[in-house]
Amino acid sequence: VEVKIEVVIPEKERSKEEMSPNGKASPLIYKVNGTARHYHLEEHPIASSHYQNPKGMVEASVCHVKDLENGQMREVDLGCGKALLIKESGEFHAVGHKCPHYGAPLVKGVLSKGRVRCPWHGACFNIGTGDIEDFPGLDSLPRFQVKIEKEKVYIRASKQALQTQRRTKMMAKCISLSNYNLSSTNVLIIGAGAAGLVCAETLRQEGFSDRIVMCTMDRHLPYDRPKLSKSMDSHPEQIALRPKEFFCTYDIEVLTEMQVAAVDIKNKIAVFKDGLNMEYNKLLIATGNTPKALSCKGKEMENVFNIRTPEDANRVVKLATSKNVVIVGASFLGMEVAAYLADRAHSVSLVELEEVPFKKFFGERVGRAVMKMFENNRVKFYMQTEVSELREQEGKLKEVVLKSGKVLRADVCVVGVGAVPATGFLKQSGIHIDSKGFIVVNKMMQTNIPGVFAAGDAVTFPLALRNNKKVNVPHWQMAHMHGRIAALNMLAHGTEISTIPYLWTAMFGKSIRYAGHGEGFDDVVIQGDLDEQKFVAFYTKSDEVVAVASMNYDPIVSKVAEVLAAGRTIRKRDVETGDMSWLTGKGS
Questions:
Q1: 486 three-class SS
Q2: For residues 126 and 30, which has the higher predicted lDDT (pLDDT)?
Q3: Which residues touch 251 (CB under 8 Å, ≥6 apart)?
Q4: pLDDT value at 19 more than 50
Q5: Are 334 and 363 within 8 A, CB to CB?
Q6: What angle do CA 555, 457, 274 make, to 5 degrees?
Q7: What are the residue boundaries of the Rieske domain, all occurrences included (predicted)?
Q8: Distance between CA 378 and CA 324 in Å, rounded?
Q9: Which residue has the higher pLDDT, 191 or 31?
Q10: Residue 129: which residues within 8 A CB-CB, separation 6 or more?
Q11: How far apart are CA 288 and CA 194, in angstroms?
Q12: Strand order in the sheet with 324-328
């Protein structure tokens, strides 16, 4: 029996196959956006014999048909690139071997019921089509056709597909943009983050050919916002999610530095701060959050930053080099900034009201382990206190005074004390806003107003994992999924959200991965060694595991995410005993 794999690329998609993470073919940009995040060693590829034919294709014998058991994946080398060979339910499939998001080796991921989940950040891909089914990331995997002949496995693939390892889905274009009134659009998207961009792309992927307008207060096209605190010296063009040409090609209009001041739901009009009025048919509100400011004296001083833009992050790095930095707030942003600046600044001090960083999110034991890692990297903590005053000298920040009486030298101060939903402009709109300012939506991302949808950090939505409890999940992966669900339901697909929350944080070359929703957890079961920074923590509420976090324990978080996505319950006793049979479906 032979297995042959052949890349099938429609003519229209061949140019798209060449796109890098931000849509360009440049190897330099691919390196900036696609690798150098974790430096994980990939498994040694299996040796293969290969030859190239004259048509830019490569064909290789990669293994015997019996070399793979059901449920196994294998990375195979074709000489000019690699593919991921998969066997499930007696059938062979082949797709790209790297996650298009940050380049994780999918062979180290989790295979389950027709899809493979990335071991780093949880993106999911259909093994039959290569299509992305859960996020983060925008592109799908190239798919290779599989044929069985005799007892060897052959792969025949285009070199382009093997080298780019990504596929941008086919998209529609606007039928006749020149005929539209500039002051009206079919779909208006307020906000140009992950939710807004995925919504626009999904509409085009589903064949929507009417006008789409995105507007943003930012000066840039959509970019990879998590990099602002994880890779602070990245320039805007390096972290762009798509290049300018992409938006032109697919007729997705982006109005930058434009702020919506009000929404008239009766007349379906968005009123902009500069006086422009724009009519819409369908509306997506994806405005995200606004950082909280300090309330103390001196908060408006020069060199005090909320990091909202690439320019903010770049300027902080420049000013902090060999200087004294004070970070207020042990939030994800605050901790990631502290980690990034630790070996660049003269000193890094972190001020936090709680006793332990991440206590409410990761629990006290994990929080203390993280705190110890920071202290070992010269970060000084000032816990259970607040800032009472910022002092200046010659107009610039000089000292941060704490309520404990401690005075810290400071040339730069970064504020990371949380955020509030950017929904103030909706207060008189009639759109349902809860007491905390979040937009309330249903499982289809619909608000209480027909034709008005909301997505991302500014919403609360029913989370299936927690019995449809209304929650706010302000994370990158969830914003992507919100945008997709909103787009599908603008097109009346009736699709409900059912994704498992998945997030990560990166500090000192280490990543903590997290899946589930642990709000209100009452116990933490830890396996591994916190001191050795190799552990998995299971968060339980009553008798049920509601979330998991890990460091250096891949792919456990992705495995748990797949179990939860399948609707299976993980009991506390399952993880207390160390018996991992529940991971293979033998548990509850």
A1: helix
A2: 126
A3: 173, 174, 177, 211, 212
A4: no
A5: no
A6: 145
A7: 60-155
A8: 12
A9: 191
A10: 140, 143
A11: 10
A12: 304-305, 412-415, 324-328, 347-352, 379-383
Q: Please give the helix or strand (H or E) that residue 379 lies within, else none.
A: strand 379-383
Q: How far is CA 514 from CA 82, 322, 460, 547, 548, in A?
A: 29, 33, 20, 7, 6
Query: CA-to-CA distance for 28 and 86, rounded, in angstroms?
Result: 30
Question: pLDDT digits over 258-312, tens only?
Answer: 999 999 999 999 999 999 999 999 999 999 999 999 999 988 888 999 999 999 9
Check residue 579 and give its pLDDT: 73
CA 52 – CA 503 distance, rounded (Å): 41
User: Which residues neighbour 316 within 8 Å (Cβ) at sequence distance 6 or greater?
Assistant: 232, 305, 307, 337, 341, 412, 414
CB 462 within 8 A of CB 517: no
Using CA atoms, how far apart are residues 72 and 259, in angstroms rounded to an integer? 50
The answer on pLDDT for 53 being more than 80 is no
Ordered structural domains, the chain, with CATH:
55-164 (2.102.10.10), 170-292+419-500 (3.50.50.60), 304-417 (3.50.50.60), 509-584 (3.30.390.30)
Averaged pLDDT, 111-131: 96
Ramachandran assignment for 452, one of left (phi > 0), alpha (psi -120 to 50 degrees), beta (any other): beta
Would you say 181 and 156 are in contact if contact means Cβ atoms under 8 Å apart? no
Quick count: other Cβ atoms within 10 Å of Cβ 163?
16
> Reading across the β-sheet that carries 269-272, which strands appear in turn?
260-264, 269-272, 277-279
Q: What angle do CA 247, 253, 256 make, to 5 degrees?
A: 105
Biggest alpha carbon–alpha carbon distance for the chain = 81
Residue 467 CA to residue 378 CA, distance in Å, equals 43
State how far the Cα of 333 lies from the Cα of 66, in Å rounded to an integer.
Answer: 49
Per-residue tokens: 343: 């070996």
The structure's pTM equals 0.89
CB distance 197 to 214 below 8 Å: yes
Q: How many CB atoms lie within 10 A of CB 571?
A: 16
Q: What does the block give as tokens for 450?
A: 């027909």
Quick check: 588 pLDDT over 90? no
In angstroms, the CA 403 to CA 408 distance is: 12
The CA–CA distances, whole Å, from 160 to 82, 85, 284, 585 equal: 11, 18, 36, 38
